[in-house]
Amino acid sequence: MSSSYFENLIGTVIDSSVSNIWDSAVLEWEIEDVIEAQENDFSCVCGKEKIRYLFTIRNHENGSILFPIGSSCIKKFNREDLNEITSINETLFKLFHAVKKNEFISLDTDFFSRKLLKYLYDEGAFEPNKFNAFNGKNDYLFMLDMFNKRKEPSDKQKKKIRAIIVASLKPFLEEQLNDKVVTQNSNANF
C-alpha cells in the first residue's frame, strides 16, 4: 500500500475514533460484516480502487461505521483477531464459489484451515443428522481429523468428506453468502 493510501487510512480511522493516536484508535474497531464485489468496482476508505472484499467495521466506543474498507487496510491495524476474521471471510467466499460451481473440493489448505473448520462449527454449519448421531460436533471432529491427517484419506473417508460438504457446508454457505456477493447489476444499493 503506498504511503498516501496509508495516510488516508490513518486519517479516516482517527477521525472516526475516540482516540487520536493510531495504536489506540485501531483497538476501538470490530468487523461487523463483509460482502464481495465480483467486478472489483469499489474503492476503500483509504482511496485504493478495485477492492474485492468490502468490510464494514464498527467502532465499539462511539458507534462510527467505516465502509467499504479492504482487507489490506484491515491488516494495517496489526490485530491478529481482525486478521483471522478477514482471512476466514475471504476463504469462505472462495469455498462458496467453488461449491456453487460444483468444483471438486478437497479437504486441504486451498479451501480449509483449522480455524475455518472451527468457525464453521461455531456458526452451526455442521447440522445434526442421522449420519452424525444427531450431533454436528461429530462431523466437525471428523473433518478436523481428516484435515490433520498426513496421508490420503481412504475412499470411504473421501465419500464422507464430500457428503458433509454437500449436505451441510453447501447449504450453510448458500444461506450465509448468497446475498453477500455484489455484481454489477446488484450494487445500486451501495
Structural category is: alpha+beta
Task: List SSEs in N-to-C order.
Answer: HHEEEEEHHHHHE
Mean pLDDT: 93
* Bulk shape: elongated
How is this structure best described in words?
This protein is α+β, with helices and mostly antiparallel strands. The protein is 46% helix and 15% strand. It contains seven helices and six strands. The chain has helices spanning 3-15, 22-25, 71-75, 80-100, 114-122, 136-148, 155-177; strands at 29-37, 42-43, 49-51, 53-59, 65-69, 181-182. The strands form two sheets. It has a four-stranded mixed β-sheet with strand order 5-4-1-6. The chain has a two-stranded antiparallel ribbon with strand order 2-3. The radius of gyration is 19 Å and the shape is elongated. The mean pLDDT is 93.
